[in-house]
Amino acid sequence: MLDTVFYFILNMSLASCFVIVTLLLVRQIRRLPRRLMYPLWGLAFFRLVIPFTLPTGWSLFNFTGDLVKRLVTVETMSQGIVADTGMASRSWTMMNSIGAVEQYVPVEYKTETFRKFFTTGAVVWAIVAVAAVIAALILYSLTRKKLKQAIHIKDDLYRSDMLLSPVLSGLFRPRIILPPALDPDSPEGVMIVAHEKIHKARLDNFWRLLGICITCLHWFNPFVWILLKSFLTDMELSCDEAAIGKYSKEEREKYAGTLLRYAEGNRAPVSSAFGHSGVKVRIANVLNYRKLTFIGAVASSLLLLAAAIILITNPVQ
After folding, report:
1. pLDDT digits (tens), the chain, 317 positions
2. So where are the chain's domains?
3. What is the model's pTM?
């Protein structure tokens, strides 16, 4: 059973590499708002956790040559039979890019060498993945415990002597925790609180932790670590854009100065901290911010829809 899961993970990880590279190229479009790029990373994470999806003629994988050896349908999985690509064109399918098995229920490998490789590899993968997930959860718990003694100010605002930079702590009932010297009613404090409330409304701490856990499952894939870094950076960039949407040029300059001031605060990997995640890039993005026009919003929405169809669907033949 474990080797079957590992086989699925390897196939999903291989497919995700093409999606990640494509998104990294899209990310190079300078005029593309980060608040659009941020949800696009969800397409890559989708590929990393969902093995089955619909086939379409628009799929990126129609143009990857011999990458896809076979398409496995949901129906044939339950019957223990692997279907050829032509037979699977109208059903939910999984891409089999490795082509090492004859059938899945029960698993039958083409050679004894394949069986030994996947049996041993599955054990190694599972040990490292479980250890990495446990480490991430322990780190989250320790961070939460460290900030549990924060003093309540008002509403969802707290203050802690342990912080040098504002932090949004918690998953489903997150708290905005400020350092001692920051007045939440000052112009600087209002900007910071607005930023953290956007994180809170979008459940960014949950998505951050989920992204970290998915990365732990695909720890062997360097492209997934690049995905995580880019995802977390764009999380902050998109939040900055949402926070400064109605600011004047002078207010954006003050916001950039506030980012610089809190650039060296405490780091909390599983919490959203105001002054972290590529401060230089964030300052440049804030200073060069342009409001999205109606036409730009429509074009961005169409791009998001097209990317979803192209990147998360499977090929047909």
Report:
1. 788 889 889 999 999 999 999 999 999 887 788 888 999 999 999 999 998 888 888 998 888 877 777 777 766 666 555 555 444 445 788 888 887 877 776 678 888 888 888 899 999 999 999 999 999 888 888 877 777 888 888 888 999 888 878 888 888 788 999 988 888 889 888 999 999 999 999 999 999 999 999 999 999 999 999 999 999 999 999 999 999 988 888 989 999 888 888 775 555 555 566 655 578 888 888 888 888 777 877 888 888 889 889 999 988 86
2. 2-126, 139-292
3. 0.87
At 35, list the tokens: 């608040």
